Structures are given as structure tokens and as C-alpha cells.
Amino acid sequence: QIVQYLADYRPYPFLLSETRLDFTLIPDATRVKAVLSLAPRDPDTPEDLVLDGGAGLKLIALTVNGQKPDPAHVSREEERLVIAAAALPRSAFTLETEVQIDPAANTTFEGLYMSGGMFCTQCEAEGFRHITFYPDRPDVMATFRVTIRSDRKVLLSNGNPVGQAQGMAEWHDPWPKPSYLFALVAGDLVSISDSFTTMSGRKVDLNIWVRPGDQDRADYAMESLIRSMKWDEEVYGREYDLDVFNIVAVDDFNMGAMENKGLNIFNSKLVLASPETATDTDYERIEGVIAHEYFHNWTGNRITCRDWFQLCLKEGLTVFRDQQFTSDMRSAPVKRIEDVQALRARQFREDAGPLAHPPRPDHYEEINNFYTATVYEKGAEVIGMLKRLVGDAGYAKALDLYFDRHDGDAATIEDWLQVFEDATGRDLAQFKRWYVDAGTPHLDMVEQWSADDAGGRLTLTFTQETAPTPGQPDKPARVIPIAVGLIGPNGDEVLPTRILEMTQPQQSFDFEGLGARPVVSALRDFSAPVILTRRIDDATRAFLLAHDTDPFARWEAGRELAMTALVSLSQGQPGGDDYVTAIGELIADDSADPAFRALCLNLPGDEEIATRVFSLGLTPDPDAIHAARQDLARRIAQTHQDLLARIYDRMQVTGPYAPDAEGSARRALRIAALGLLNRIDGGQRAQVLFGTAGNMTERMAALACLIRLGLGDDALAILHQEFQDNRLVMDKWFSVQPMAAPPDSAVAIARDLAARPDFEWKNPNRFRALIGGFAANHAAFHAKDGAGYDFVADWIMRMDPVNPQIAARMSSLFETWPRYDAARREKALAALERIAALDGLSRNTREMVSRMIA
Ligand code: B3K
Ligand code: ZN
To answer: Does the C-beta of 292 come closer than 6 Å to ligand 1?
Structure first.
């Protein structure tokens, strides 16, 4: 069966209480013995025992209660092993298997594989079936006892260590878990260690395991872990539940990190950092992802998902929690603006194209294709709305009930919503649409002002509409919490933030007794993931940018000023004067947070402009968009030359580097100023900064500036010389070149880089750095002659047989193809069709490409 449907769910017909595993680790001939304690769920209805198992498993031995079953009762199918009901006892029994696998030949980085000489696993979503035969589904939960035999020095698995001898280690995980949370690591690693005492006074050993030589770059990850553990106790009342928490850094990893019980495995780029090698953004991500994986211990592990359709149950909630954490650790407004920018760039884009799907999809072919911005980031937004609607106290009550009621369960979105209904008494039937419907609602706001005796009345009329998405032509109205505030003509707030609850396709809200007509600040804090349109002129936007008390809405006003100007310029019309004036006033305000000012100063990227142009019913022209953005940036630089130069000088941080909110805010503003000044100073400042800065944040920014001017060669050579042995820095080196290059030279640059011997393309980070870096250059990827599409398609085709997950993920770079002009569409479609025609194309990439072509 190719397509999996949510509606087909049925519980596994067997109960599994304990899983015992015994690994003998040999790179090309690892043996895995598994002992499963099973029992029929309903002894009166005999069922075949179906175990998942990939084609790479070589079955060595199989017994049921110690006896070999009659071979006629055992069938090996392509991806499963079936033992006929006739060969199974009617009560509890033990199934023993032994398989041989070849981790050294595993290039997919799924299941058990090798990275730099160490053994390592990745099991979510369905990797465990490449390790042994097993009911590889999240609702089958068991305790695990694991023995590892290997000559590697450090042997790790989930849970608590229970035995250690020469060449051997034993682990026991007392918390029942699904197979996707299993992990094993064996390598010659070193650790940095610390400890944490939980709120009930238990001491937990904390270790971060890295390759020898990397241990001085793991401190920040450790500090982040300790902060996360403390925060989850204080804010959610959640305590850690094992004696030890291990984190391992791995160079070859398909995504960011993985929350395996008690043994998180991380892409090394999300663990290792030093001021000389990592940027402020890297530090912030490390803190956020360490927190995210740690928070999964409760939202994901203790309470897991019944099936993979429920993925956003754990991911949306855990993203929401990590966003709250970062807001508390750093600046809440800045975090909110960053999150909205990311949501718009990745999720709105997804929602508006052929890959649109609901946060809880109801069918899929390959679940790995659904670890998306919609499941993660929109999943988190939906929880944010829920919290707004029930209030902070209601949210806290519901979460307590969730942990209470569902600890140890494999739960569903229905369970989650039920908890909110029971805790708050609210009916969430309509709210559920956010989980089951795809697409971003368009929300239109019309203001009506009538002066009367009692003062004035303002009526806000909202209309919501969601365009059809694949498989979902009709979109009923959703509940939309709209946060609104009113600001008087003198700039004072006359109505503090209030939540309007919209439930109808069209709905009006009145505000009475107002003295004079106020300015409306709408969708404060981005209270719902919608696209808001309103009729508003530049002067009013500039007023909001100057006076709004809500930082998000204030930033948004400036963003809209810039965006309308850029759209207009890209259509060959004038625009931007109001923005240039307003931004000058804002950045001159030294009392405002430098990070906020930096966010306001950074123009929307080409891709975001293209998205806006398209949503206005126009066809984006990548070259015109690029030129418009260049033009506006140059005008800002020219107009505010002195102010920007002053900011650049004043924002220099003296003293030792610290990756905290304050230091990174100053650097962010300084770099934003540099990016503009660079357009008129011939690269002078960037040249100096690259040579003198002691931190990677400023050096990378300077380097990008130089590349943009075609002056990057010396700096690139210096960086290469200095860091050729540091993979993470070299990834930056590979990505910044095609990303910052002038669009007409980017394809050639990317091709040259791809031909280098140190383009180790099978390493996912390196592949993403170059191919993803190139595609981030919007006008280059969408080059008229199709060269950008072909370059990316060629590499997807090369990657597909080696690592289908990475190939499939990269293919989504094409998801916006339908919005461009006919000539570009034709080229993009040809590239997609070329991929589709590849012999032996993986299920992963096939599903993605066929959804995009459909
Ligand atoms: N749960 C993992 C992601 C697994 C991706 C599988 N293709 C990391 C996370 O979201 O925390
Ligand atoms: Zn997660």
C-alpha cells in the first residue's frame, strides 16, 4: 500500500512489554539479537504477527518461545516479516531474532550508520526497522534493555547505565518508549560533564560527547541544557526522570537533532561553538535546539504520538515551548519578530503552493516528507492561538491535565483538544479546523468611523477567506483571535490590547465612546497566522512605526512600508520615500533596543518580496525584485550615511565576546548598518572589519559584504587557510559564496565550488551549505535561462540514491515554481520532470516531485 491514511488507524494486535537488544558492532557485519516479550491483544482473535524490517536486514535466526517456527508459517516480504497466526501461542510469548546489518554501507543516515568512525543511530520516523525486525510504530511502547559489544571506548544507549565491562556496556530504560526513540552510539569520544539537581533533589549526570579536540567548544551547549532543565521545572513543572542525560555531537546527520530518550543525538553544528567559529545566530540556535530536544522528554517521549499523522502533537507543542524559553532567556519581542519572519518565509510559502498540507495531515506516502514548517511552526502558532483564546491560566490548567491524563500514552490531537475543553469548558470544535485544514487565511479589515453625540464609534469589519489547497477546495471559517489596540492622534494608546474573537466569515466589532478617530493597531503580536490586508496609507504606517506600543505591530508597520515600496519599485513604479524618512527617525532613537532597530533596518529578502508580489495577483520578476531591493538599500545608505556611520562606530562591542542578547543585539545593528554602508563605501569598512574582528559574527557579515561587491577573494582565501580543518566553518565558506554573489555569477561560482574535492557532498551539512546557499540567492536560482534549476536538479538526482531524505527535502526548493512567468515555469517544470524520470527514484523524492507537478 503506497498511501497511508489516518482513517485506517488500528491498534497493533499485540502488546509488547519488554524489548531486549544485544548488539555486536562490526562496521560491515553488525549482529543484532532482539528478544521481544509479546502477547496477543485479543487471544480470541488470532492474528498474524507483522514486523517491519527493511531490505537490508539479513535474517540469521528466528524462534518463538525458543522453537523455530515451521518455515511455511514465516514469510519475508520486501519491507516486513510475517509470522502466521498458526505459528503463534494464544498467550504471552517470546520472539527472538538475530539479524546482520551493514552500517558501513549505510549512506542514508537512517537506522544504524557510521560517521567518522563512530557508530550512531537515527530512528525517527521509521529508521528502527533498518536495525531489526520490529513493530516500528509509535503506539507500540516497551521498556528497553540493551547490550552493546564493541571495541569503541564509549558505548551509549537510552536510559540508565547498568553494567560496564571491557568491550561491553549494558543500558536499561525503565520508561516505556516507541522504537523511534531508541538510540545507540559507540565511538572514541570525550565528554564535558556537569550535573543538575532536580526540583525533588535528584542529581542527574550531564554529559556532552564530542570528538577529541572539540571539547572546548561544548560549554555553551552545556549551559543551555542546564538552563532548559531549570526552565521546564519552573514554567511547566516538569522534572527529568533518569540518572543521566547524554548528548552526542555527530558530523553526519540529516537534520538538526534528535530527542532519543536520555541520549539526544545532535548535528555537531548545533553543539559546537566558539566565538572564532560560530555566529550569534549559531549560538541562539544551539540554545534553542538544545532546549527543544530536552523539552521533548515530556512533550514527545513521556507523552508520544499515536501515529505519525499526529506529529504536530509533539512538534508543534515542543516548538511552542522552545519559543517561550528563548523569549524568556533573550528578548521576547525580538524572538516574536524573528519567528514570524521565519513562519512567513517557510510556512506561508508552503501553504500557498503545491505542497500545502494541514498541521495534521490525513494521508502521506513518506512520513519523512512531513517534517515541515507547517507541522512544526504552524503547529506552534496554533498552540499560541489556543493560549490566547483560553488565557494563561486556562493554558496552564490544560497543560497540567495533559501531563496528568496522558503520561505514558501515545496520544492524538483529539486528546489534546479534549484536555483544553475539559480544563476550560470551551467548545473547540471550530478551533480544530486549524489542525485539519491547510492554507493561510486572508483576513481583510475595513474601518468605519462615525462621529456621534456620545463621541465617536469605530467599527472594524473583518472578512476571512482561505484559498483552496490540494485536495481541499472548500474552507469553512475558522476561529481567529485578533489582537487589537487603538492609538489616539497624539500617539497615546486609548485602548490597550484586546482580543477580538472572530468566528464568522465576516464579522464586525464596535468601539464606542471614542473622542477622536484613533489609529488601529491590528494583529498585535501576530495573534494569528493569517495574511492581513487593510487600506492604510504610508503616513499612517509611519505613525504606527513611531507610536505603536506593541513591538511586533510597530515592526510590522515599518515592514509594510518597506514592502509596499519594494513591490512598487519592482513593478517599475516609484516608491520608498516615506520608508527612508521613517527608518531614519527610528534608528536614530538610541533609547530603542538595538536588536529591534536592526530588525527594522533589514529589508525583506527577494523571496519574501516575490511572495508578496504573487499574493497581489502579479507575476514576480526575480531580476526586477533584486534591482528594486538594491536600489532601496542604496537610497537608505545615501540618505542616512552619517547616521549609519555613527551607529556602526558606536555599536562596536569592546571587551570579550559574549553570545548574549545584549552583545548580539549591538552586533546585529552594527552589521545591518554595515550592509547598507557597504553599498556606498566601496567595501572599505567590510575590509577592515574582516581583518580585525575577533568573532565569527562580524567576520561572516564582512565577508558577505565583500562578496556582494565582487571583492571577496582575499578574505575567502584567508578564511580557508585558517579553517580548512574545521568542517563547520568550511560549511559557511561554501554557503556564503553562492548566496551573496551577484546573481549573474552565482551559478558559475556554485558549479566551481561543487567541483572541488573538499565539496564532500554526502555530508548533509556540506550539501545543504552549497545547494541551499545557492538557492537562497533568489534571482540566481530563478535565472531566466534555467541554469539555476538545472544545477539544483542535477544535485538532487545525484543525492537521491545515496540519501533520499536529503534529496527529497532539497526538492522543495522548487515548490514556488508555479508563481513565475511562463518561460521560467517551463524550465522549472522540465527540471522537475527530469527528476521524476530518474531510474529508481526514491519514494521520498517521488512523492515530493509528483505533488509539485500535479
Ligand atoms: N524529532 C526530530 C526530527 C526527526 C526527523 C525525522 N526525519 C527532531 C525534533 O524535531 O526535535
Ligand atoms: Zn522536535
So the answer is: yes
